Amino acid sequence: MPDMRCRVIYELLWKILVWLAAWNVTWSAAYAASRPMSFDDLVKLRRLTAVAVSPDGKYLAYTQGVPDKAANRIQYELWVMPTGGGPAHQLVSGPYSATDPCWSPDSQTIAFVSNRDGKAQIWTVHRNGGEPRKVTDFFTNVSGILWTADGRHLIFVAEVYPECPDEDCNRRKYAAVEASKVKAYIADRLLYRHWDSFKGGRRTHIFVVPVEGGVAKDLTPGDYDAPPFSLSGRDYDVSPDGKELAFARNTDRDEAISTNNDIFIVPLGGGEPKRISTSPGSDTHPRYSPDGKYIAWLSQERAMFESDKKQVILYERATGKLRRLSDKVDISFDELAWSPDSQTLFLTGDHRGQVPVFTLTLAGNDVRMLVEQGQNGNLSVAPDGKTLYFTQSTLTRPNEIFSVATTGGTPKQITRVNEAFLAEIAFGKVEETWFTGADETRIHAFIVKPPRFVEGKKYPMILLIHGGPQGAWSNGWSFRWNAQLFAAPGYVVVMVNPRGSTGYGQRFTDEISGDWGGKVYVDLLKGVEHVISLGYVDADRIGAAGGSYGGYMVNWMLGHNTDKRFKAFVSHAGVYNLTSMYGATEELWFTEWEFKGNPWDNPELYEKWSPHRFAKNFATPTLVIHGELDYRVPVGEGLQLFTALQRRGVPSRLLYFPDEGHWILKPQNSELWYKTVHEWFATYLKPETVQ
C-alpha cells in the first residue's frame, strides 16, 4: 500500500510538472508574441469608415482604408457584409480607391466614388460584385453621393467656376489652368485659400445627374460654396419624395469673418433657393424626416463662434415653423440620423471624454444615452427602426462596426478587421482621473501607462495637449496622435482636457476665449502635479507635445518654464506670434472671436497671450514641426519659432513637410513624424525600452 501511494503521488507530481511546463511555454509564447506597438504596426491597421445599411436591412456597405506605405498613400476599399454578421466580401478591387458607398432604393446596387480612370467619378456595382459601371464623366473630381428615393437620380458635389453656365465652359477653364505654365493666383477678397488649398476662383456646388449618366444639373449656382467647407459631416440632404434638396450655404459677403451658414431648400428640378434658417450663427447638417414632414439640423446661436453649442432645430415643412429640440440640454451635438418612424433622432456629441450615441424625441429636451463608451459615429439606422449601426473606436482599438438595439442594451461588435493583428500588440493600460484645476474646477484626464507597467517603478512622462482649443481628448483611436504609440517606448502619457475642452458643458468650453494662456495653463500644470502625486512618474523626466492650439500651449510653456519642470517640448503647427497669425490665417472669425477683435483696434489680448513676447525666456530643448500647406496655422509660425530658438542658442530642430498641411497624413511622412518625435523625447527623457 505505501508503494502504491508513493506511485500515485509520483504520477500526480509528474502530471503537475508537465502541465506547468506546458503552461510556461504557452505563456512565454503569448508574452513574446505581444509586443509594444511600433509605427509599422500602426500603419498596417485598416481604417474603417462610411457605414451604410441597405434599404431592405439585410446588408452593410462600408469602406476601409488600407495604407500603402511604399506608395505613400491610403487606398480605400468597398466591402459588403450581412447585417447580422458573417463573411464580408470586397466589391471592387484594383490599384484605386472606392469611397462614399450609397445604396439604391431596391438594395440591389451600390453607387460609390472611385478614381479608377484617373479622376474621382461615380460608379455603380451590384451588391454581389461584378464589373462596375461608370455613371459620371465630369470635368473634375466628384464626392458625396446621395441616391434619390425613386432610384432615378444621384446627387453629388464638385468644384466649379461659378461664372460658367455649363460643363463645357468649366471643362475649358479647368484644361486651361492645367495647361498653363503660370501657376499664380489673383485674389480680390479674403478666404482665397482654405485649409490646405487655394480656391482659384472655384466654388463647391451640388449637382443632380440621371443614374444612367448624362448631363449633370447645378442645383446651387452662384458665387457661393454649397455646401461650405467642412472637415466632418454632410451638409445637404434630399427629400424622401426625391423632389427637394436641403443644403447649407453662407451668403455673407465677407466669408472670412462669418460663420453664418444657413439652411436653404430648392426643388430638384431647379429654381431659386429659399432660406429657412434664422440663426446668425452656423446652421448645418440638414436631414429630412422619413415621413417628409420635417427637416432637422444643427444650429449655433452666436455669430463668429465656431465652437458654440450645436443644438437641434426642427423645421415643419408644411407651416415653416421652427422649434428648438435641445435648448435645455448642455450638450453640443455633432451628427444626427432619423428613426424610420420620424419620431426620434439619433445623435453623437462629446461628453466627459467619450463620444456617446444619444436619442432625442420630437417632444424635445428628453435626451437619453444609448451608447455610453468609446468614440462613436457614422450612424445608420435599420429600416425597421429596431437596430442602429455605427462605428466605434477606443484608445486601444481602431474603428469597428457595432450595432445596438434602438431601445437600448449592450452594443454588439459586427466587424473584426484588425482583431487578429491587434492580438499581437501589448497595449498600455488606460485610466481616467479627475483633479482640481484653476478656480477649484474639476478637470478630467486620461492616463495611458506604458506596456508591461511595473508597480513601484518610476517612468518618464509625456503630456499631450489637444488642439482646438475647443476640442477634447476622447476614448477614441487616432492615427495622427496615437497615445499607445507614444506610450510604447516606456512613457506614461497624460492627456488632460483643460478649460476650453468640449464635452464638459458650454460654459467650460467658453472659458478659454480671451484667456489662452490663463486658466487652461494652470489646469495643465495642476494635471502634471496630480499625476506626479500618483507615485509612478519621474518628476525630472517630463516632456510635452501638442499640435495647433496644443502647439501654441507648448510655445507658451516654453516661455514660462522657469522651474524647468519640462525637459523637452514638441511644437507641431503651433501658433507663435498671434499678430502674424491673424495676418496669414484664413478663417478670421476664429481669431477675432478668441481675441475680441483685430490686432490694430484691439491689440491687448494679442499682446498679452502671444508666445513670441517671451522668447527671451526660451531655454528648453524644442522640436518644431510644420507643413508648407498649412493655411490654418501658416508655416511662418513654425519658422519664426525655430529662428528664435536657434538665436537663443536653445537645442532645437525643425521638421518641415513641403507636401503636408495642418495634419501629417501620408504614411511615409507620418513615419518620419513619429520617428523624429520619439528620437527627440528619447534624447532628453531617456525612457527604458519596453521589452
Describe what this molecule looks like in 3D.
The chain has 691 residues and is α+β, with helices and mostly antiparallel strands. Among the domains are: 41-134, no CATH class; 426-685, Alpha/Beta hydrolase fold, catalytic domain (Rossmann fold, 3-Layer(aba) Sandwich). 20% of the residues lie in helices and 31% in strands. The chain has 13 helices and 38 strands. The strands form nine sheets. An eight-stranded mixed β-sheet has the order 31-32-34-33-35-36-37-38, sandwiched between helices. A four-stranded antiparallel β-sheet has the order 1-2-3-4, with no helix packed on it. A four-stranded antiparallel β-sheet has the order 5-6-7-8, with no helix packed on it. Helix 5 links the parallel strand 33 and strand 34. The radius of gyration is 27 Å and the shape is globular. The two termini are 52 Å apart. Residues 1-32 have low confidence and may be disordered.
Q: What's this model, at a glance?
A:
20% of the residues lie in helices and 31% in strands. The chain has 691 residues and is an alpha+beta fold.
